[in-house]
Specification:
- The structure is a single chain.
- The chain is an alpha/beta fold.
- The chain has two domains: 207 residues, Rossmann fold (3-Layer(aba) Sandwich), CATH 3.40.50.720; 39 residues.
- It has nine helices and seven strands; from the N terminus they run E-H-E-H-E-H-E-H-E-H-E-H-H-H-H-E.
- It has a seven-stranded parallel beta sheet with strand order 3-2-1-4-5-6-7, with helices on both faces.
- The chain binds nicotinamide-adenine-dinucleotide (NAD).
- Nicotinamide-adenine-dinucleotide (NAD) binds next to helix 1, helix 4 and helix 6.
- The site of nicotinamide-adenine-dinucleotide has 28 residues, from helix 1, helix 4 and helix 6.
């Protein structure tokens, strides 16, 4: 199936790792040029090398997305190299497991800057170029915890805000042929969960078991398909939404979760 992505230009935030890396490589596989972004030079370069091996144009940009100026510079660099951005995937994120009642303001502010304000700011920077082109795809990586409890209150609140922002922006930009959707992953095997001290270890600590055992428990107790998803499972959905095949889909928040969300919306 030709997804019509050859020669398009895609900016994927947080593409140095996990889900973002898989999205960047999946879009590159379909022939899209890629802007790889992150904060770690070695990891950004390594993903860029993998994308280039797929025969597409690649730009690397180091950016801390909690800094508004970095977002402006990232978009300007992309426009400087490719002249346009057709696909924007807002993926960068984090999750810290700790007592929500003891959450310091500065940590909540950091999470909000990264997972909400950076989404808003990047959409605002990129949309004018999509408007001019009369075509665009914005895909925000949210979470199933935007829809049902299970994460932490701060994370869940931020992701719920992302879903509502996605819906509103989709209506606002529909007349410009810019489609805006969110993808809501269930638990996915990435460094967020698997890195030493990551989600698995942090959860394991609260349960008195290893991170690996805690992840097996989550899969057994909460995921009907019985296992975590892979970054590629999210990348495949994002790549479809970025394509011409998804031209009548906008304002949706689509679960990719092994059946974990219990509601029908
Ligand atoms: P990851 O830790 O593997 O990757 C996170 C990416 O975000 C990295 O590239 C990192 O450099 C980037 N990032 C973090 N802070 C940044 C900052 N200040 N500035 C710029 N970039 C920054 O995590 P992941 O699991 O691939 O998560 C990607 C997205 O998916 C996040 O938005 C996360 O909330 C969401 N998500 C993940 C899961 C899961 O189970 N892994 C489930 C639901 C939603």
């Amino acid at each position: 199936m030709d997804l019509g992505l050859k020669g398009k230009v895609a900016l994927v935030t947080g593409s140095s790792s996990g889900i973002g890396r898989a999205i960047a490589l999946c879009l590159a596989e379909e022939g899209a040029n890629i802007i790889v972004t992150g904060r770690d030079k070695a990891r950004v370069s390594s993903v860029a090398k993998e994308a280039k091996a797929r025969g597409v144009g690649v730009l690397t940009v180091l950016a801390d997305l909690t800094i508004a100026e970095d977002i402006k510079k990232m978009v300007a660099a992309a426009i400087g190299k490719f002249g346009r951005i057709d696909i924007l995937v807002n993926n960068a994120g984090t999750s810290l497991i700790r007592d929500p009642l003891l959450l310091p303001d500065d940590e909540f502010r950091y999470e909000t800057e990264l997972m909400l304000f950076a989404v808003v700011r990047t959409c605002s920077e990129v949309s004018p170029y999509m408007r001019k082109a009369g075509w665009g795809r914005i895909i925000n990586i949210s979470s199933i915890y935007a829809k049902q409890i299970g994460g932490l209150p701060d994370y869940d609140a931020i992701k719920a805000a992302v879903n509502m922002y996605t819906k509103d922006l989709a209506i606002y930009l529909a007349k410009d042929n810019i489609l805006v959707n969110a993808v809501c992953p269930g638990p996915i095997r990435t460094p967020l969960w698997e890195a030493p001290g990551g989600g698995g270890d942090q959860l394991g600590k609260t349960m008195g078991m290893s991170g690996k055992k805690a992840m097996e428990w989550v899969a057994k107790q909460h995921i009907p398909l019985g296992h975590f998803g892979l970054p590629e499972d999210i990348a495949n959905m994002v790549t479809f939404l970025a394509s011409d095949k998804a031209k009548f889909i906008t304002g949706q928040a689509i679960n990719v979760d092994g059946g974990m969300v219990k509601a029908v919306i």
